[in-house]
Amino acid sequence: MAYVRVFDNETQVAGAAAVIIASAILHKPNVILGLATGSTPIPTYRELIRLYQNGVLDFSRVITFNLDEYCHLPAEHACSYHYFMRKHLFENINISAGNTHLPNGNAPDLAKEGIRYDMAIETAGGIDLQLLGIGRNGHIGFNEPAEQFTYESHVADLTPSTMEANSRFFEEEDMPFQAISMGIGSIMSAKEILLIATGMDKAEAIRKSLQGDIRPQIQASILRTHPKAVYLLDQAAASQLDCSKA
Ligand code: F6R
């Protein structure tokens, strides 16, 4: 069962998430972090940058693996996840570029790239702490609703709901329709999982993932079988939870 903590607002969720990540770095300077993109983690990354600037955190030995990247979008594109991570975190802290990893959505053979990425995670020793957001349809990474869970890194066709959520960032002709994503296997193999969700548009996915059946149509529901998964929510994202089931 996942441990759930509800905060008044998004700022507190970010503060709490940053405390957990900071504590992991302080305990293990060469910690392996799994990182997410999207709107939700931006305030958490801001907090981590502040802790670095105040001299509290040293990222020089930290290793990161991101969840996903769009396919066929140049890494320099302002909407690529490579660009996102540089802008919102990496270029503001003392992490070594060689210690940061994202799947290559432009690899000539994307199936091989998935195998390479899983092996890189395994060779590094596996993820210590995986940060996750959640899609409105319950996706984690780009593990979209499906008939079964996919354990390996793989190319995912984005669902209409995800493409609609992403449309705020893209010109229509640039809009990617596929992404390469870490699979459920690497996510679930992380020693600890930290899912953050804020806002009313996540309330249904949060309810289904925490209080519905565990099923691949709501990919995040599998997190309940992880021994160390924590959900940090604001009031809005928690608003559909049935407290009698807590
Ligand atoms: C991004 C990712 C996605 C997002 C999810 C929520 O790396 O893996 O699963 O976490 O789509 O995105 P936001 O935070 O923009 O609502």
For the biggest sheet, the summary is: 7 strands, parallel
Rounded to the nearest angstrom, the distance between the terminal CA atoms is: 10 Å
Order of helices and strands: EHEHEEHEHEEHEHEHE
Q: How would you describe the shape?
A: globular
In the CATH scheme, the class would be Alpha Beta
Q: How many DSSP E strands?
A: 10
Helix content: 25-40%
Secondary-structure-derived class: alpha/beta
Quick check: average pLDDT? 96
Strand order of the largest sheet: 1-10-9-6-2-3-5
Q: What portion of residues belong to β-strands?
A: 15-25%
User: What is the helix tally?
Assistant: 7
Bound ions, cofactors and other small molecules, one mention each: fructose -6-phosphate
User: Residue ranges: pLDDT <50 for 5 or more in a row?
Assistant: none
Rg of Cα set: 17 Å
